[in-house]
Amino acid sequence: MTKTTIAIVLTFLSFIVNAQEQRLEHAVFKECLNTESPTKCTSEKIRDDISALISPEITADIRWKMGKIFFSVGLAFLSDQNGNVIPETIKIACDNKGLESAVKEYILHLSPFSPKGENEEDRRSAHLERYTFIYNSESKTYEAASEEILKEKGIKPNYVSLGNEPVLPKCACDDAEKAKKCTVEKLYEHISKRIKTNSIDKNFSGQIYLVASFAIEKDGSITVNDILCNLNDCEALINQYKRAFTGLPNFIPGNYEGVKVRATYNLPVTINIK
């Protein structure tokens, strides 16, 4: 008998607004304008600048007083139509108060960004970033970790939500956590009904892992970017998973301080075949 169990975890990664073609849809550092991905360049520069703020004193406090092998920093703020940071919109999520203060000062003194194009209805931009730093026992410093390294080490950061995440219309309510839980449940119900195992070899026994990377756009529509599978022959399952997204209604898009943003997610699915 074949038993199929589907487990879904909706993991918040970040709110990202990408520059597409020649149309600048998000404020970026001026020195990143001519790079292949101005948004990615800007995010990486902020990450590197925050890394430089982790002094030996802050390192000692986090590693030995707080006992943390890794820690995360979340930051959010708006820049205006001229690319200037709007001070009252700054939010920092960090367990270490010294680093929190240093990051806030850093943001306050950023040079103006290159703002969105003039054809954008709202030229303000929402900047939301989340970084995780892992302690290196050899260098005795904390180093920024990529998503690949976090996965390799089995680290799952508990990122704090710094904005209003997208939710399905039927789940919308004043309680953000309740709305998010409802959205996850509806996604689980929708996806699990649409992934069938009849394409799998009858002699197969074990676990199949699928991970969909998708985005909820600023208009609430869904874009599936990629689907990975741990099996070599997985095309049928991947196609089923991709088609499952097409039946979903548009989301109520995410926003930060009233500025709509593009949200990216990973949606892992585990199928147990016995």
UniProtKB/TrEMBL annotation:
<protein>
    <recommendedName>
        <fullName>TonB C-terminal domain-containing protein</fullName>
    </recommendedName>
</protein>
<feature type="signal peptide">
    <location>
        <begin position="1"/>
        <end position="19"/>
    </location>
</feature>
<keyword id="KW-0732">Signal</keyword>
